[in-house]
Amino acid sequence: MSAIEVKNLHKAFGDLKAVDGVSFDVQQGEIFSLLGPNGAGKTTTISMLSCLLRPDQGDALVMGHSIKADQMGVKSVLGVVPQEIALYNDLSARENLTFWGKMYGLRGAPLKQRVDEVLEIIGLTERAKDRVGKYSGGMKRRVNIGVALLHKPQVIYMDEPTVGIDPQSRRNILDSVVALKNQGMTVLYTTHYMEEAQELSDHIAIMDTGKVIAYGTNAELVKIVGQMDRITLTVSTDGGRVAEAWKVVKGVKQVKAEDGTLVVLAEDSNQVLPRLFEAASTQGTRITSVTIQEPNLEAVFLHLTGKALRD
Amino acid sequence: MKIFDIALKDLTRSFRSVFAVLFMFVIPLVVTGMFYVMFGGMADSGTGFSLPQTNVVIANLDEGGSGFDMAMSQFPADANIQSMGDMIVYTLQQDNLADLMQVTLVDSAEAARSAVDAQEAGVAVIIPADFSAQFSDLEGQAVLEVYQDPTLILGPAIVRSVLNQYMDGISGAKIAVNVALAQTGSGDPAFIGQVVEAYLTATEATRDPAALLEVRAPAAGETEEVPLLLRIIGPIMGGMMVFYAFYTGTATAETLLQEDEMGTLPRLFTTPTTQATILGGKLLAVLLTVTIQVIVLLTLGALIFGINWGSLGSILLFSAGTILVASAFGVFVNSLLKSTKQGGIVFGGVLTFTGMIGMMPIFVFSNPSATIDTISLLVPQGWAIHGLLQSMQGAATGNLLLTMLVMLAWSVAFFGIGVWRFQKRFA
Ligand SMILES: Nc1ncnc2c1ncn2[C@@H]1O[C@H](COP(=O)(O)OP(=O)(O)O)[C@@H](O)[C@H]1O
Ligand SMILES: [Mg+2]
User: Fold this and answer.
1) pTM assigned to the model
2) Distance between CA atoms of B265 and B271, rounded to whole angstroms?
């Protein structure tokens, strides 16, 4: 059964179509990622799915509750981790968690117990009494996530939870996302980091300019670019002539010139690379750098949009 | 109840903020304290905060004279005043100076001076035998001797200033008599008596030194028992309280905008909590914060400065009105703003300007007038101060109730518009 069914959502800000007909299904108990660059419309989508923004058109069901007709129903099954940290800096982590717990309807002993558990999960038991304002960015992010876990929601949205933090906090967060899934929660995760989507997700929807441009598992998406390795090279002379020579090399599928570098798509870089060097030297050209990328979502995004995921 | 949880969270945050506490409690108290010191700072507050009284010994040697007794109708019969000297003694023994000085009478100038030398008294006032006679003699020069402990500063200064004002009044009377004589050429003692009496009536100062510093004419007889200093300090403290209650109302209501910008308000809207509860909680927080502020300031005003705010019933009425209108004003003003960036205009401009207008009846010392009172009633602060002064002056409950109803009407209008605008904004 679907935990979230998104049906043709639209949202415009003036002339700007921030979300332009987005549909996808999130299965119960999976991690589903919305992957896309800044401005793709991820946060706007999440805002509509958490009833903060009213869609211009379309609807969505969260655990069967319509975001238009049954907002309280949606909110009661939902935990939201907003992209921007939304906490009270002048309250301690424990006070923040206790307050938000009450807003999710927890009281008394169960609330206190759950706050203790969440503090444990986010690894801040020791610092629970300190005001959040004194925390590092990573610690704040962890509390920001902790708030959404208090009432053990069936569905949790995490909007770019790892932006701007140290690697250790990032690791902690990625691990906890997997832990949530293992507890049976459904996670809708947004990111512009391809590696995160790749590592975490059962399914991925790639978004760009308000639209879902590709959808599937990591493996399914990578097939879009045809399982090819991506070899990026810089050369000492004019790239045009070399590119022509490389196009006829055995095993090479495609050669593209991209701002001063040449990108070669090939079935197996191990076999193709020596031939590329050979072809280059017959042209009197030296190869000055080489990078090999096995197929990934970055390549998929590049393939579909002609631009890099990270700008 | 989530509504209380939200309000409690806001209260916790307010009272943790050094800034908020500064503006809520410290500044009103410090400003009042400054006025308190400025105006002498010697009133007996009954809480051990008072400065020591000055012991004054008076040797009243005045043997009387013919010209002064016409003015005696100014004084109560039982005061038994036979001379100008008796008049001075009577004046210095008045109840409203009792907080400032303890008067003892001695028989001789010698005894008076030695009391000061022995440090039994801070000031000796010696009224010479010919004091009345010199006053009666239009050419004469009535001179008082003030002998003081050189190590004391404040107490003797106050005694001297009261005497100076008194002597000014007397010289004024003499000048008045001289002028009258020059113009009419009449030496009739009955006529001179009338002139002096008329003068003394006009310058109530000679009889009541407190009147020299009075800011407003007290309305009820009861108030005349209130010590001088408190008659000044009470309204000032009250004015500060009203001004900063509005400040607090606005600052607390501004957390609606702050939380919107911080993302905690949108986050609240993602929890299963209705908009009514969230807005209700925020408004409740504004009301409670201002309520706590007003209660604390009223209590501290009474405890530290000994201010009598009025009867319990009228205190309840004007405080309730003030709390409501200050909170509603805050909600209203913030509902008009786009973001907290515009907050500076509100705090620096709107609040200060309307607050000043509202406080005019208190701070326009020299010339209180009906016009100023009326202008001040153009702003809600003016009504709060109106109610406060009514309560302090023991106005009838009916009058105070009317003031309260006006504040209620302001509040309903402010709350109505403010809440409606916020509801629309967060819908
Ligand atoms: N409240 C808003 N008003 C106007 N434009 C907005 C608003 N929120 C987002 N946008 C615009 O909509 C587009 C999508 O934004 P967003 O959903 O935040 O993207 P993402 O989260 O993928 O970075 C962007 O171009 C952004 O500038
Ligand atoms: Mg975003």
Assistant:
1) 0.70
2) 10
